[in-house]
Amino acid sequence: MEEPHIISPIKLLNEDNLRLDKRRLDEIRPIKLEVGVLSRADGSAYIEQGKSKILAAVYGPRELHPRHLAQPDEALLQCIYRMATFSVEERKSPAPSRRETELSKVITESLAPAVFLKYYPRASIDVYIQVIQADGGTRCSSITAASLALADAGIPLRDLVAACAAGKIDGKIALDLNDMEDKSGQADLPVAMMPRKNLITLIQMDGFMNKQEFVEAYELALKGCRKIYEMQREVLIQKYISIQEEFSEEENEQDNGG
Ligand code: UDP
After folding, report:
1. Which CATH number goes with the domain that contains 72?
2. Which single residue of 34, 205, 223, 257 has CA 20 to 30 Å from 190?
């Protein structure tokens, strides 16, 4: 099929190939990750990626209701992606949209290969993802946060899943599009992977790219995933270092008769 000639209404790149938020083409948005942010969940994580802000909460493995959904040989992983009514510019209806149902499925399928589901037959592992503020790329940020929340819950994983999109803006391949770039750009290619295993768990595409552009965008997205993976690992390592420090402080106090 002939590629339609789409000219974006807004200029997304300046003459130095810098983007509207001053990023280079191969730069991801600033990312902040936290784990263990919710005390009632078995595991939780928070991500800020640029202006997107997302919470993920994991409950389980736990008894599954309704029971007829139970699978005799493995756990059922259920991710539910929801956007707050105030998370987008134009108020979103609180009723689950078709898009939210689709993203819930896509996110579940991106994470399932990483979880040792066979360890928990008949059980349910529930992951609730709440988008508090959306600025593009929320499916990828949700996968990144949900995977961290699963690890925070102590659920055995083959690897963390890291996700990042690449796309095409003003005819150039760019990493981690924000909302404006997504809407005014020509293509978006979200990818999720298990970096240690080098396995892709999600690849979707929206828009138009030729084969060469696709390969370039795909490789750039993988680079983004690997960077995000390092950040995920770091936040988990920091969590266990602080637990270790707390324990040794307690032990010291006990040794000193405190
Ligand atoms: N969006 C919006 N209203 C909606 C749904 C989405 O303004 O009801 C925005 C939001 O910023 C989102 C972006 O559109 O991040 C891109 O949505 P898409 O469906 O491409 O998914 P995403 O890129 O977030 O994974």
Report:
1. 3.30.230.70
2. 34
